[in-house]
Amino acid sequence: MNCEFTQAGKFMVCTRPGCKNRVPIFNPSLPATKYYATCFSTAPPRQTLRLGSLVADTFAKLGITESRYLAAKRKLGLAPKCGCNARKRWLDEVGKHFGMGV
Ligand SMILES: [Zn+2]
Question: What total number of domains does the chain contain?
Fold first, then answer.
């Protein structure tokens, strides 16, 4: 697991609990995400909420699952294709622009 760095003075310091990693900033134009170190934190990685998963979960709660969606399309004489994963990936990407799942 990589450290989650944030800038603190002349160092990048890890923000995860239990990890005291810090790396000297060698290039001030590099963002914190470009620094890598093996994290010593014992805390589980932060759960990231992705928009695609959120939408899929919401639909599932409404009873709209992938298999039911496909069955409905088949009944309407449409190709039983979902494109769910592609749409989910697309939504994940959209969500990233709003700070979700990053
Ligand atoms: Zn760390």
Answer: 2
Question: Ligand 1: distance of its center to the CA of 102 in Å?
Answer: 17
Q: What is the pTM of this model?
A: 0.45
- 75 and 42 within one domain: no
Digit-coded pLDDT (tens) for 18-72: 899 999 998 889 999 999 999 998 876 666 778 888 888 888 888 888 888 889 9
Q: Which two tokens stand for residue 40?
A: 């010593």
Task: At 17, list the tokens.
Answer: 């609990």
Rounded distance from Cα 29 to ligand 1 centre (Å): 21
Are the C-beta atoms of residues 39 and 32 closer than 8 Å to each other? Answer: no
102: in domain: no
CA of 24 to the centre of ligand 1 (A): 14
Is the same domain home to 42 and 59?
no
Domain region containing 84: 51-96
